[in-house]
Amino acid sequence: MITKAWYRIDEEEQVFSPNLLIYPSRIEQNIQTMVNMVGDPSKLRPHIKTHKMAEVIQLQIKYGITKFKCATIAEAELLGLQNAADVLLAMQPVGPNILRFYTLISKFPQTKFSTLVDNEDSLNEIEKVAKERRSKASLYLDLNVGMDRTGVKPGKKAAEIFRKLADSKFLEAAGLHVYDGHIRHPKIEDRERECDAAFKKVLDFKHHLETEGYPVPEIIAGGSPTFPIHAKRQNVISSPGTTLLWDARYGGAFKDMDFIPAAVLISRVISKPAPDIFCLDLGHKAVAPEMDFPRVHIYGLEDCEQISQSEEHLVLRSTSKSTVKIGQVFYAVPIHVCPTVAKYPEGLTVEGGKITGKWKVAARNYSLVI
């Protein structure tokens, strides 16, 4: 008896391609794995940028997760609409987004919102609005421990910013935020060694602040690659995101983690322009194109080379005699799931091979109402 593959749906002929398939029971399994790794859901602040879906937020709340992290005001809105208790906007607001951040606070009073700061100019702007609105803002100092994307390096300047934040009558010093997304060694031993070295700078900085009389209430650290390391630390909140849906890149690189793919693309062969070349309907607009080839892991086509991609087309070369037929269905796990999900307005939910409904990718745009 041949067992049907977990990702395959019964009504293939009724589902157009390309399309996004979501597997709720597998998402639930990933949430349980996250909670088991930290031992206590209060030590989690998962990022919602991977899925941007209300239903996934509700699944996490079901397992006791109350704190969340997001990158856009729209994602923060979605969390507010789901009555999330505690939301960190992990993108330093500038320009009109400062006022939008305060609109969030007033629109969703049941949710505690906080955000990041890494320089005095932004601190001053946020403090100015806080004073005008008579509404205290909760801020984390964003530290740069080597990624060189955002944040201020632990040291004298960072201490000056934190002291000014803590001394303000209109701001609340919530703690430190550390994202170490540059640490991606496949071997957990190498990842742990580099992660610990980077985090030591954070602990030393925290100790320095506290000896000066400035308490640091909380440290939020890491993403998905360093999650297994930060999950073991005491008094540290971990903030993985990709762990909820997982993807082929992380699944191939980090064998030490037991997460499983929970989002799949359904695709079809649309042309065979040469005996050893065929084309799928998985172009730039259907799957994240920023990575090198391969862009997806295609079940059943592991021996084929992905050679080019354009807006609507993904071209493959067969390394053996190809038996694919025009119209044939294939299933693919994205190499990078986060920007891939954002390309779809909704995903079809699948349980036991059956389409059970649709989940809206609600925060794929940059604004819902605010």
From TrEMBL:
It comes from the Bacteria. InterPro entries: Ala_racemase_N, D-amino_acid_metab_enzyme, D-ser_dehydrat-like_dom, D-ser_dehydrat-like_sf, PLP-binding_barrel. Pfam families: Ala_racemase_N, D-ser_dehydrat. Keywords: Lyase. Gene3D superfamilies: Alanine racemase, D-serine dehydratase-like domain. One of its GO terms (biological process) is D-serine catabolic process. Residues 262-351 form the D-serine dehydratase-like domain. One of its GO terms (molecular function) is D-serine ammonia-lyase activity. Belongs to the DSD1 family. This is D-TA family PLP-dependent enzyme. The lineage of its organism: Bacteria, Pseudomonadati, Bacteroidota, Flavobacteriia, Flavobacteriales.
